[in-house]
Amino acid sequence: MLNKFFNPQSVAIVGATPREGKVGRVILENFKKRFKGKIYPVNPKYDEILGLKCYKSVKDIPEPVDLVITVVPAPVVPQVLEDAGKKGVKAAIIISGGFRETGTEEGEKLEKQVMDISRKYGIRIIGPNCLGIYDNWSGVDTFFLPDEKMMRPLKGYISFISQSGAFASALLDWMALKGIGVSRAVSYGNKIDVDDVDLIEYFRDDDKTKIIIMYLEGLKPGRGRLFIEKAKEIVQHKPIVIYKAGKTARGSAAAASHTAALAGNYELYKAAIKQAGLVEAESFDEIMDLSKILLTQPLMKGNRVYVVTDAGGVGVMLTDALTMQGFVLPKTPDDLKKELREILPPHCIVENPIDLTGDTDDKRYIDVLEKLLPREDVDAVVVVALPQIPGLKGELFRYLVEAKTKYNKPMIVIMIGSHEAEKYGKFLEKNGIPVFESPERAARALKALYTYSLIRGVASRK
Amino acid sequence: MNVKTIIENAIKEGRRKLLEHEAFEVIRAYGIPAPETGLAKTPEEVAELADKIGYPVVLKIVSPDISHKSDVGGVILNINSREEAIEGFKKIQENVKTKAPGARIVGVLVQKMAPKGLEVIIGGLRDNIFGPVVMFGLGGIFVEVLRDVSFRIAPLTEEDALEMMKEIKAAKLLEGYRGQPPVDKKSLAKIILGVAKLLEENPEIESIDLNPVMAYSEKAIVVDARVIFRPK
Question: Does B160 touch chain A (CB under 8 A)?
Answer without folding.
Answer: yes
